[in-house]
Design brief:
It contains 5 helices and 2 strands; from the N terminus they run E-H-H-H-H-E-H. The protein has 109 residues and is mainly alpha-helical.
Length: 109
């Protein structure tokens, strides 16, 4: 027979808010990096050597774009995790209840 599980909805909300702050920091890093890294390509020069360094599949610009994209992926993961813990997820499911039965737990997930 399944046992009841208890959780602290307010604690889940607090964790959700802290994780959302981490997501915001990753988003800020992406925005700042996009500006800084974009300006760097001009510093490389508009000649053969500058283009060789910045352009192409393995060039500086592609690597910068990849770095920002991976950072955005992390921000998205933290956003998803924060949502799943917050009011839209686990905390909302636990509200008004000190414990959920096994059937209620399956519906909450």
């Amino acid at each position: 027979m399944p046992r009841d599980i208890e959780a602290d909805a307010d604690g889940l909300r607090e964790a959700s808010e802290l994780i959302a702050e981490i997501k915001d920091k990753f988003s800020d890093i992406s925005a700042t990096a996009t500006g800084i890294l974009g300006d760097m390509t001009r510093a490389c020069g508009d000649d053969h050597f500058g283009h060789k360094f910045t352009d192409g599949k393995e060039g500086y610009r592609a690597r910068c774009d990849n770095l920002v994209a991976r950072n955005d992926d992390l921000a998205g993961a933290f956003d998803d995790y924060a949502s799943s813990l917050g009011d839209a997820g686990a905390a909302g499911a636990w509200d008004g209840s000190e414990s959920l039965s096994a059937a209620e737990q399956r519906r909450a997930v």
